[in-house]
Amino acid sequence: MNARLGILSSIVELLNLNLLIILISPIENWEYYGKCVIKLNEDIQLEWSKLVKEIMNCRKCPLHKYRKNPVPGEGSITSPIMFVGEAPGSKEDETGRPFVGAAGKFLTELIEMIGLKRSDVFITNIVKCRPPGNRDPLPEEVNACLPYLIRQIKLIKPKVIIALGRHAARTLYSLAGLKWSSMTRMHGRIRDIEIEDIRIKIVTTYHPAAALYNPRLKDTLIKDFKESVAKAVEEVLESQTIENSKTKSTQRSILDYLK
Ligand code: URA
Ligand code: SF4
Fold this sequence. Notes:
By secondary structure, this protein is α/β, with parallel strands linked by helices. The protein has one domain (42-236): Uracil-DNA Glycosylase, subunit E. Helices cover 49% and strands 15% of the residues. It has ten helices and eight strands. The radius of gyration is 19 Å and the shape is globular. The model is unreliable at 16-22, 32-37 and 249-259 (pLDDT under 50). The structure holds uracil and iron/sulfur cluster (SF4). Uracil (URA) is lined by residues 85-89, 92, 98-99, 101, 103-104, 125, 209. The site of iron/sulfur cluster has 14 residues, from helix 6.
């Protein structure tokens, strides 16, 4: 952490000037994460813009013919928490934003239920363009699009990924070289996996859309979030706080108060 950031962090901590950080962050290239300010690495930012541009212009699979807008994902690219769904639906296609329809509204509620905000996490999908009529993406479409998700994972280096629905779960398990069975068996499970040499906790649960019209599934999803997702998130935030305090001397900054 540079001196300027350290001094400013202390002022923010003392005076609780969170608003100040939000106001100056676009100028200073900082991202506000919970109670923590992180200076974005310029290389990562450049790589990220390049990746988003590629997705916006991509024609690697036939889904580009039907889309109004590709949906690269949104949220904090310095967050240790990533949510991965299946594919954009019609609202997402119209807006270019992930999970903004009915399922998205429920996902936002679930995220808030465990004490986070949408802006605290990164949200994306396995495929970035809407399959016509909301059909499942074909294996060749998933294969064409997967390199984008892998690059997103390599840049964000999430500590926990929440796979929403069996398509996301199966794809991520297979990326990690693991065998997937079924959501009935695997929902609520936390597993340590490695993708591209990055150690990640994966939590698998039902897709919010599947739970919308099925009260039993909805209760299961809420339970998975309150138990497994909350537990995995708590563990990674805790280990991050410990890592931060190890790298610092006696001076305390707002990074100490991440949780
Ligand atoms: N369903 C998904 O899997 N992703 C979205 O972005 C919206 C609905
Ligand atoms: Fe490209 Fe993925 Fe869209 Fe296919 S779904 S056109 S691979 S961004």
